Amino acid sequence: MGLMNIFGLNNLSFLGAGSYVDVKLPAGRSSIEGLLWKDWMNVWKFVMESQNGLCLLLCAAVYHFFPYDYEAAARWDAAVFVSRLQLNVLIVWGFYSACHVLSNFLSSRKFLPARYPNFADMFQMVFYCTLSAVQWTVWEYGFCHMLGRGYMPFQTDAEVLMSWENIAWNAALVVAVPYIRIIHFYWCHRLIHFRFMYKYIHSLHHRNSDIDPFAGVCMHPYEILYYFTTACWPSLYVNCSPFVWMWNLFHAMITPAAPHSGFEDHWSTDQFHYIHHAKFECNYGTGAICFDKMFGTFVDKFDVNVKEQYDKENIAKGKGQYMAVTNDVLNVLPKSNDYTLHWMYCIASYYWVLANALGWDATDYRVVAANLAFGPAVVAVVLMLTFGDINPLLWPFDKEPMGVCALHIAAGMLLSVVPAYHFAAGVLGGSAEATAYCQLWGC
Asked: Which of 175, 188, 217, 402 has its CA 20 to 30 A from that of 124?
């Protein structure tokens, strides 16, 4: 324990099964119930004796050696954006490739031993992972633009160190980020599993016949938009160091890699989330703060062979066989008219934001921001009602009590869709008055 488990290592090694794993059983059959809510109140263990600690160290190094250029972001300097994008893509490719090697070449206990990603699988995952890195850069640039233009206050490194109060405030926010991420992830993830959101947006993430580290942020561009709204909590609404939102975005971008490996005997593996990919209607959050246990959607382990479990529960629902393989690299593209229409709407929404930001379009910024945040969900409902579907709009939660269903929609919208509006409005508004910070606290 202690330093032997620093950064979530297993006796200072990136390899080896966790203490909960019974190696006499096939992968995925060991119970993880004992891990629920474990150590989440022990800040040292939760932050430093997990992958959170290593990612925090990497983030601090990037923050120190590659500082943001707020003045360049204030004037929309394209060269600075491209330079930052190159850095971020290298970070993502490097970290995710390391996790890919760790799992696929150095680990042995695969949840589904017979299945490895083929070229088409990897092409799709790397393609969308790279698109996510692009949007990561856009989010960073948006925050930098607001700070560089003086739309929002922030604490410089020197100001943070000027008082113990500032040090304590920012340190508390840095420690809080992994907790914020867990809470945000559950409610955002549950929202995009409602059929109208899942069909057109989140289904892309579940398209892989078996997951790999690069599947971690292999997401539809609109899913990654809602996913990155975690950085708004709390940085869009309070005065703090830019490191807080940088750390939040860095954590969101990097930490999904190892838990999506498909193996159970290496650093930071995650049987909890793998079960979600295999069984679909369970384990929407994490075990550390287990909302799934509270709402009855927790599944502990596989009772039968992983492939049998997946096929039994999902083929009848029209989601396809687990072992289905495609060698078509064009699997990155939408497959039907309604999907294509939704993609066209999403691309047009992003272009509208770009045109408005650069002054090519004079539409009121609030209309553009509202369309970006709320439009895809509204259009998804319209398309489902127009083209029809094998499942109802609220599936697979349509049998839940209405209060529980409404709670998840409301909380998911509040935590992930509304902040997308606030962020876009702050970037496009052209004044401090357009930011959520000023609307809350005054300018």
From this structure: 188
Side-chain half-sphere CA neighbours of 338 within 13 A: 16
Tens-digit pLDDT profile for residues 405-432:
999 999 999 999 999 999 999 999 999 9
Number of neighbouring beta carbons within 10 Å of residue 386 = 9
Please answer whether residues 211 and 196 qualify as being in contact, where contact means their C-beta atoms are separated by less than 8 angstroms.
no
Q: How far apart are CA 258 and CA 39, in angstroms?
A: 20
CA atoms within 13 A on the CB side of 348: 10
Task: Please tell me the pTM assigned to this model.
Answer: 0.93
**Cα(97)–Cα(115) distance, rounded to whole angstroms?**
19
Q: Are 323 and 114 in contact (CB under 8 A)?
A: yes
Summarize pLDDT for 276-323 with one digit per residue, the tens. 998 888 999 999 999 999 999 999 998 765 555 445 444 444 443 333
Q: 10 by DSSP, 3-state: which? A: strand
Q: How far apart are CA 378 and CA 371, in angstroms?
A: 9
35: left (phi over 0), alpha (psi -120 to 50) or beta: alpha
Answer yes or no: are the C-beta atoms of 427 and 371 closer than 8 Å: no
Q: What is the C-alpha R_g of the chain?
A: 21
Listed residue (346, 69, 318, 319) closest to 224, CA to CA? 346
CA-to-CA distance for 148 and 126, rounded, in angstroms?
A: 32
